[in-house]
Design goal:
Alpha-Beta Plaits, single chain, OB fold (Dihydrolipoamide Acetyltransferase, E2P), five-stranded antiparallel sheet, 3 domains, about 30% strand
Length: about 300
Amino acid sequence: MTFGVNDSPHNGKSGNRLTSQQIGARLRQELEHNVSISVLNSKDRMEEFEVQGRGEMQLGVLIENMRREGFELSVSPPRVVIKEIEGKKMEPLEEVIIEVEDKYTGEVIQKMVSRKGELQDMRPSESGKTRLYFKVPSRGLLGYRAEFMVDTHGSGVMNRVFDSYIPYKGSMEKSRKGVLVSMDNGKATNFSLLNLEPRGQLFIKPGAEVYSGMIVGEHSRDVDLDVNPVKEKKLTNMRSTEKDDFVRLAPIRQFSLEEALSYIAADEVVEVTPTTINLRKKHLDPGMRKRASKRNDQ
């Protein structure tokens, strides 16, 4: 993952360790007693650090410890370490052993196959469940644990271990839709969020502080959509018997740190502070996002 400074408009509101020097010093301190991680300077920006570890859960624990210590930072989505061996692009492969109830085996197998996994064996286990053996690229397992717990209603058990490096298997299927991105700063209003509900699922409540570039919901379509969640209702001298102040919004989707890291796309980051976890675009300015998207397409 890439750790960087929190450059959003909410910078400094809840944390007291904000600079890249403080983040770098904390990561170097972690290296002294945690031999399973490595820290490299980012090639793109001087104030960012590339942190490598033994999995997204280990790095998630490090991020959680840092936010409790008063750090504010932005974190990129997790990605696997790709190597070049004998001139070939290689990626890590993992052996995954899953125990689930019989009624959930079809769903689990479908999800693993869509993530380029191969079923090696399937047999009944001593606990009365079904045991499944897979070989899956590590890329396909990023963010799957939370989805696995939902699919198996919390009854499934998954163990995974590194197997070997194999030739790169190509791009993965996109498993997420587009997002609703705020185009203005301010407090989200009930009136605006009520109008946005038909567009998708919301991540914020009325009164939440938002800023341009912050992700406020998931779009019902596969493309991102810029929206205005702070728009207020225009007042007129016309009276109405209906009171829209009491209109109830649908429950919002709330993210834990692990869920947020597994949800964001390559052009997004998680804003982590001692009190909040927000999803946002890496580039807050809409113009910069469009230019970056064109460069990636080329």
